């Protein structure tokens, strides 16, 4: 600790990202990255960039990218906001909509950045327990609140909330902003974006990191009523007027315009997820129904922490959360078929050895 820190810094409990060890080569199934490269159009677009223009500031409103996103979702540019990764977009959401007298609601097991943002911005919050099967039940969210946020599918549990349930939330809480964090929606869910045309209190946040393989460029966006977008822009322009660099804007346009490649890679990952789920069950694992590019699994006879460490020692990284209710589970990213086979074989050996 430093005597030079402001009081709020002493109170912060920062987010802990998935480990990125550099000591050896790993089969990396711990951070939900896409195992496949971006669309070939991305490489071509970056190759054709005018390097001389990098001496200039990028378009502060990312107009071309916003137009491409709006076209993809069949909406209008004034309903789209972009930021430096969905984490930045979410941070702006907390600042713009959730600093209220009533508490923000989110699940007790969910994306662990949410309480971090609450600490950073001084937002009161209340966690709503997931059901015993780790599902989100929207009827548990009927209490008074200053906003609601949850991932769909939820992370790290991978379970999906139906669109009808999301619409019910929007109807019940017309005076609250409902943020649906759809980082993984393209791997088996139905986006709530169409509902934003009907409900002015619904904001949907997505990312290019997962289904479009651009985690290294940090592109996130939100779609909602123009009044919500204006609120996000006011926060953005009070924090960083140039959030997306020129290369990210070019790559994002190329990625979202290549629909065929996007759909094909999502299909392949879904097929790999189903195969991995089947293989894990064959080893005795219990696997939650997943609509994401990862699975959440436990073995009744082998502690998750022990499996995590044994896999790491064997060169395979998965995610282990030392937290109540989920410390017996592993979150496993869906890799290529070869990576998934390696994982399964390593687990078989570890379990047989145990």
Protein described:
This protein is of the alpha/beta class and 354 residues long. The chain folds into two domains: 7-37 and 260-353, Aspartate Aminotransferase, domain 1 (Alpha-Beta Complex); 40-258, 3-Layer(aba) Sandwich (Aspartate Aminotransferase, domain 2), CATH 3.40.640.10. The protein contains eleven helices and 13 strands. It has helices at residues 7-11, 40-47, 63-72, 86-97, 113-121, 163-172, 226-236, 246-257, 259-282, 304-313, 337-353, and strands at 27-28, 80-83, 104-107, 125-128, 148-151, 178-181, 202-207, 220-224, 286-287, 294-298, 316-317, 319-320, 330-333. The strands form four sheets. It has a five-stranded mixed beta sheet, sandwiched between helices. It has a four-stranded antiparallel beta sheet with strand order 9-10-13-12, covered by helices on one side. Strand 3, helix 5 (113-121) and strand 4 (125-128) form a beta-alpha-beta unit. The mean pLDDT is 96.
What's this, in brief?
With 354 residues, the protein is of the alpha/beta class.
Output the CATH class name of the largest domain.
Answer: Alpha Beta
- The global form is globular
The structural domain count equals 2
Poorly predicted spans = none
Tell me, rounded to a whole number, the average pLDDT.
96
Our estimate of the beta-strand percent is: 5-15%
- Let me know the number of strands: 13
State the helix count. 11
Topology:
Layout: H1 7-11, E1 27-28, H2 40-47, H3 63-72, E2 80-83, H4 86-97, E3 104-107, H5 113-121, E4 125-128, E5 148-151, H6 163-172, E6 178-181, E7 202-207, E8 220-224, H7 226-236, H8 246-257, H9 259-282, E9 286-287, E10 294-298, H10 304-313, E11 316-317, E12 319-320, E13 330-333, H11 337-353
Parallel strand pairs: 1-11, 3-4, 5-6, 6-7
Antiparallel strand pairs: 2-8, 7-8, 9-10, 10-13, 12-13
